[in-house]
């Protein structure tokens, strides 16, 4: 293995100051409710709203502020995301009950979570695509109350109109003009005007991420997300232009984003490096992209594909692209990734917007133990059991004795009293 371009990326634990500030804001929201939300909305976003829920009139106004082509494009993305989510939902059509021991009938059923919040970031870009990725699978799953929220545009009481339109087309039941830690706190604990939800999904900055971490338990979350990342495995048959473009598509997200190339062809790595520099010269988001590429970008040359696979599984990237002469040779060996893009034409950008898979994915090696947001994120698999007297007569003595062995005598008695 040879590192052609080294990364300075460090997975630094959340700063103590961030943890403390988030805890203080959450406590304020818990205690002062709407008053606290209002205070932080204005402090951080200069959002003067007194009522957080977006009205139908505001949504209609947003449609007038975006062009028809944008709406048509969003609807294409929505259709593909919905169709894939429907196929995912089919995997839950297997409720069952089965006798697994004389008189013992066990089963399971899949129950949609009752309420969910789709947190859609604001910041430098209107991330309307995230609204689609969070709201649609929740609706397809059968969540009865799907809320969406986003910070308002700076010095404004309005959510970006593109984001608002996307939320509406995706089918959000309630939309709120609130963001940041205060939004996470409000939908966790509830306020006078915001009912709490059962699960909060969606990415955010380090403060939102820390808020989700601290609120977990009082509310469900998808996962704790960090900087976005892409890893590309490529051989001599790969297109260097595609790879350079995909690396920078990731790097422009933010200063901590990561673009990584692992290749069995040293020359390809060198060519990609040059092409990245060429694209950066005229890239409108150059300031961010050049910083994240220089600080966090990597190009690694390996001798074999097996070595590339082992390295990729160790990185456990959010997005994994493979561009090889024969991708099928390694697909089954790849086990840690948020979403897999097979072949040079399958760019991450399509997954980000329109192909139909979800772009809310695990980062910082979390793909070792979880996948991304999907229909299943909003569905609970719950078990049931039915016991006949015959089953009790057979199993109660066993349960009684095991309970006694643990020193739990009330448990033992609960089994004993049922024996006839």
UniProtKB/TrEMBL annotation:
<keyword id="KW-0520">NAD</keyword>
<feature type="binding site">
    <location>
        <position position="182"/>
    </location>
    <ligand>
        <name>NAD(+)</name>
    </ligand>
</feature>
<feature type="binding site">
    <location>
        <position position="319"/>
    </location>
    <ligand>
        <name>substrate</name>
    </ligand>
</feature>
<keyword id="KW-0862">Zinc</keyword>
<feature type="active site" description="Proton acceptor">
    <location>
        <position position="319"/>
    </location>
</feature>
<comment type="function">
    <text>Catalyzes the sequential NAD-dependent oxidations of L-histidinol to L-histidinaldehyde and then to L-histidine.</text>
</comment>
<feature type="binding site">
    <location>
        <position position="228"/>
    </location>
    <ligand>
        <name>substrate</name>
    </ligand>
</feature>
<dbReference type="Pfam" id="PF00815">
    <property type="entry name" value="Histidinol_dh"/>
</dbReference>
<keyword id="KW-0479">Metal-binding</keyword>
<dbReference type="InterPro" id="IPR012131">
    <property type="entry name" value="Hstdl_DH"/>
</dbReference>
<dbReference type="InterPro" id="IPR022695">
    <property type="entry name" value="Histidinol_DH_monofunct"/>
</dbReference>
<feature type="binding site">
    <location>
        <position position="411"/>
    </location>
    <ligand>
        <name>substrate</name>
    </ligand>
</feature>
<feature type="active site" description="Proton acceptor">
    <location>
        <position position="318"/>
    </location>
</feature>
<feature type="binding site">
    <location>
        <position position="253"/>
    </location>
    <ligand>
        <name>substrate</name>
    </ligand>
</feature>
<feature type="binding site">
    <location>
        <position position="119"/>
    </location>
    <ligand>
        <name>NAD(+)</name>
    </ligand>
</feature>
<feature type="binding site">
    <location>
        <position position="250"/>
    </location>
    <ligand>
        <name>substrate</name>
    </ligand>
</feature>
<comment type="similarity">
    <text>Belongs to the histidinol dehydrogenase family.</text>
</comment>
<feature type="binding site">
    <location>
        <position position="352"/>
    </location>
    <ligand>
        <name>substrate</name>
    </ligand>
</feature>
<feature type="binding site">
    <location>
        <position position="411"/>
    </location>
    <ligand>
        <name>Zn(2+)</name>
    </ligand>
</feature>
<feature type="binding site">
    <location>
        <position position="406"/>
    </location>
    <ligand>
        <name>substrate</name>
    </ligand>
</feature>
<comment type="pathway">
    <text>Amino-acid biosynthesis; L-histidine biosynthesis; L-histidine from 5-phospho-alpha-D-ribose 1-diphosphate: step 9/9.</text>
</comment>
<keyword id="KW-0028">Amino-acid biosynthesis</keyword>
<keyword id="KW-0368">Histidine biosynthesis</keyword>
<protein>
    <recommendedName>
        <fullName>Histidinol dehydrogenase</fullName>
        <ecNumber>1.1.1.23</ecNumber>
    </recommendedName>
</protein>
<dbReference type="GO" id="GO:0016491">
    <property type="term" value="F:oxidoreductase activity"/>
</dbReference>
<feature type="binding site">
    <location>
        <position position="250"/>
    </location>
    <ligand>
        <name>Zn(2+)</name>
    </ligand>
</feature>
<feature type="binding site">
    <location>
        <position position="205"/>
    </location>
    <ligand>
        <name>NAD(+)</name>
    </ligand>
</feature>
<dbReference type="InterPro" id="IPR016161">
    <property type="entry name" value="Ald_DH/histidinol_DH"/>
</dbReference>
<feature type="binding site">
    <location>
        <position position="253"/>
    </location>
    <ligand>
        <name>Zn(2+)</name>
    </ligand>
</feature>
<dbReference type="InterPro" id="IPR001692">
    <property type="entry name" value="Histidinol_DH_CS"/>
</dbReference>
<keyword id="KW-0560">Oxidoreductase</keyword>
<feature type="binding site">
    <location>
        <position position="352"/>
    </location>
    <ligand>
        <name>Zn(2+)</name>
    </ligand>
</feature>
């Amino acid at each position: 293995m040879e590192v052609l371009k080294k990364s300075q990326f460090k997975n630094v634990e959340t700063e103590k100051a961030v943890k403390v500030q988030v805890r203080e804001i959450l406590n304020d929201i818990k205690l002062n409710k709407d008053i606290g939300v209002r205070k932080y909305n204005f402090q951080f976003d200069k959002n003067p709203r007194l009522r957080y829920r977006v009205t139908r009139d505001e949504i209609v106004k947003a449609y007038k502020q975006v062009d028809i082509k944008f709406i048509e494009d969003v609807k294409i993305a929505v259709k593909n995301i919905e169709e894939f989510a429907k196929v995912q939902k089919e995997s839950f059509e297997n409720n069952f009950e089965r006798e697994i021991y004389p008189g013992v009938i066990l089963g399971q059923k899949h129950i949609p979570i009752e309420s969910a919040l789709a947190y859609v970031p604001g910041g430098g870009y209107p991330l309307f695509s995230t609204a689609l990725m969070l709201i649609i699978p929740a609706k397809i799953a059968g969540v009865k109350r799907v809320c969406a929220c986003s910070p308002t545009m700076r010095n404004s009481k309005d959510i970006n109109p593109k984001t608002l339109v996307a939320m509406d087309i995706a089918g959000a039941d309630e939309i709120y003009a609130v963001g940041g830690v205060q939004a996470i706190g409000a939908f966790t604990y509830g306020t006078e005007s915001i009912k709490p939800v059962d699960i909060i999904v969606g990415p955010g900055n380090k403060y939102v991420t820390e808020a989700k971490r601290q609120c977990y338990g009082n509310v469900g979350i998808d996962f704790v997300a960090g900087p976005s990342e892409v890893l590309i495995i490529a051989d001599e048959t790969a297109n260097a232009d595609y790879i350079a473009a995909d690396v920078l598509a990731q790097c422009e997200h933010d200063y901590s984003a990561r673009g990584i190339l692992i290749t069995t062809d040293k020359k390809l790595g060198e060519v990609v490096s040059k092409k990245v520099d060429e694209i950066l010269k005229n890239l409108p988001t150059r300031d961010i992209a050049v910083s994240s590429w220089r600080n966090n970008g990597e190009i690694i040359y390996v001798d074999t594909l097996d070595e590339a696979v082992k390295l990729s599984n160790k990185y456990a990237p959010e997005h994994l692209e493979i561009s090889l002469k024969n991708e099928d040779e390694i697909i089954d060996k790849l086990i840690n990734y948020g979403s897999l893009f097979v072949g040079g034409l399958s760019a991450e950008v399509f997954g980000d917007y329109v192909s139909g898979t979800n772009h809310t994915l695990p980062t910082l090696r979390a793909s070792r133990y979880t996948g991304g947001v999907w229909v299943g994120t909003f569905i609970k698999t719950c078990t049931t059991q039915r016991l006949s007297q015959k089953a009790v007569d057979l199993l109660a003595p066993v349960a009684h004795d095991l309970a006694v062995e643990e020193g739990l005598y009330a448990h033992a008695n609960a089994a004993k009293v049922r024996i006839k």
